[in-house]
Amino acid sequence: MDENVLQGDESSVVKAFEVQIGRLIKANAKSRRWRWIQGIMTIILACIVIVLALLYIGQQHESRATCEQGNTFRAEQTQIWNEVIALSQKSPNNNSQVDEQFREFVAKVDTPQNCQ
Fold first, then answer.
1. Lowest CB count within 10 Å: 78, 91, 93, 98, which one?
2. CB atoms near residue 20 (< 10 Å)
3. Alpha helices (runs of H) in the chain, residue ranges in sequence order
4. Half-sphere exposure of 86 (CA within 13 A, CB side)
5. Residues 29, 34, 37, CA angle at the centre, nearest 5°?
6. Helix crossing, 96-109 with 2-89: angle to 10°?
7. Between 40 and 22, where is the model more confident?
8. How many Cβ atoms from other residues are within 10 Å of residue 52's Cβ?
9. Are 110 and 78 in contact, with CB atoms under 8 Å apart?
10. Residue 111 near residue 74 (C-beta atoms within 8 A)
11. 61-97: burial string, b at 16+ Cβ within 10 Å, e else
């Protein structure tokens, strides 16, 4: 009788061991699946970061180009107003004080911007 009890205990231990091994195998498969998903997500996030960095660099370049175009426009405006003032000084009704104030105003308004 003792041998039957021991054999019964052994078979239940072996079955429990087999069940535990099966659980570990399933857990390992799930773990591999999660590592795969994590790897894919890492690659996707890295691609997003690269795209955003490129967009930021492009936006900076575009912003600098726009600023430089604005500076060119301001320089042209200053030149035009200086010519207008020069023409007005040839007028017999010339008011040099007003001309000088206007020149200062134009210089202040059309000061080039720092495009860095």
1. 93
2. 10
3. 2-89, 96-109
4. 6
5. 130
6. 160
7. 40
8. 10
9. yes
10. yes
11. eeeeeeeeeebeebeeebeebeeebeeeeeeeeeeee
Distances (CA, A) of 81 to 94, 97, 100, 111: 16, 15, 12, 13
Using the structure block, give the residue that is written with the tokens 């795969």.
36
115 contacts 72 by C-beta, under 8 angstroms:
no
Residue with tokens 């955003």: 52
Residue 15 token pair: 């079955």
- CA dist 10 and 20 (Å) reads 15
- Cβ atoms of residues 31 and 79 within 8 Å: no
- Residue 8's pLDDT is 55
